[in-house]
Amino acid sequence: MNVSLIRKDFPILHQRIHGKSLIYLDSAATSQMPLSVIKAIEEYARNDNSNVHRAIHTLGERATAHYEGARAKVARFIGAPAPQQVIFVRNTTEAINLVAWSWGMNIHPGDELLLTPMEHHSNLIPWQQLARRRGAKLMFMPLRSDGTIDLQELPRLITKKTRLIAVTHVSNVLGVINPIQEIISAARQVGARVFVDGAQSVPHMPVDVKALDCDFLAFSGHKMCGPMGIGVLYGKADALEEMEPLMFGGEMISTVSLETADWKELPWRFEAGTPNVVGAVGLAAAIDYLTELGMDSIHAHEQQITRYAVRLLKRIPGVTIYGPEHPRGGLVTFNLGDIHPHDVATVLDQEGIAVRAGHHCCQPLMRWLDVPATVRASFYLYTTEAEIDALAHALEKTKEFFGHGIG
Length: 407
Ligand code: C6P
What we know:
Elements: H1 3-8, E1 16-17, E2 20-21, E3 23-24, H2 35-48, H3 58-77, E4 86-89, H4 92-102, E5 112-115, H5 125-134, E6 137-140, H6 154-157, E7 162-168, H7 180-190, E8 193-197, H8 209-212, E9 216-220, E10 231-235, H9 237-241, E11 253-256, E12 261-263, H10 277-293, H11 295-314, E13 319-322, E14 331-336, H12 341-350, E15 353-354, E16 356-358, H13 363-369, E17 374-378, H14 385-401
Parallel strand pairs: 3-15, 5-6, 5-7, 7-8, 8-9
Antiparallel strand pairs: 1-2, 4-10, 9-10, 11-12, 13-14, 14-17, 16-17
This protein binds ligand C6P.
């Protein structure tokens, strides 16, 4: 991958912050959009903007073709057997809530939902609420000291009572790439459904739902070079057929009388009201961009950058890195002595370096790590080794700034 050429595609990266060149190390929160995505959005807005599925006129037909074309593209990107299994939502969070409410009606008192302690709040709270509503029990897979899931415990935890396993593919804090395949095979033995939170995997590595055999997969456009406000829920056809719609209204119905109504077929019964067509157009352009570069190459680049970052940061006295050394997704979460992560992030910002600091929407995991918060640097296809050098240098400066004789 030619990263310096790739960087030319991202206008936002070429600016100065506090007089320094921007170094954007927060792509796990939101990635940046290449020109092709920005242009696709602009062209759609200039030429084709209209409502979908209802208009006979030419603009309406074009908008519908864009929207359904985007759905087909998403389906191909994740290896879904049919576009009907791709439901457009706002983001990963909405996808999880949709399943927790709708598919959640199949949960009964005494059923068990199995999660991990590393889940993002978005893949935890909807299941907590479901368990409370339906009288189910939440169970958690234990982690080993490096933050990886202790697979030896699975036979004890995955039983006939387990109805659903909800697990993140890649942790947004630890960077752990979870053994989804092993978890799904174990779930198959007992007939449990598996929901994979792909927010941090789909943007960064090849993910094929047929090969994984997961029941549900969710991800967000804004973390994969696309715009905000568009996300995806993939479901196996039989799992989606077990769900009632959550939102009711226009465009999700087949026939309506004053007293009652019935629903359209998949996927439209889950997309009530006017959808985010321009978001779908941007997501489709983002998928074209990523596909052209190759998800394998993007993953390999991130692995290389991450290994480099871990190596460099480990050399700085006082730095504690959380999560396994390798393999890991494209991010490094750490602390610098006892300097508060918000202070570290503020000093880094003065150097033009954007990182995230806080609990990263993973408070239970922070407790497990026994820290109130951490700093996180996260990488993508446009991250360079020179940027990691600058991060390491700025961390040394941060230590001096706080007058710490760490190490
Ligand atoms: N994590 C981060 O900085 P939304 O906000 O719905 O697009 O994605 C939610 C979400 C779900 N699961 C995982 C594993 C995630 O990492 C995220 C988003 C961002 O880590 C924002 S909190």
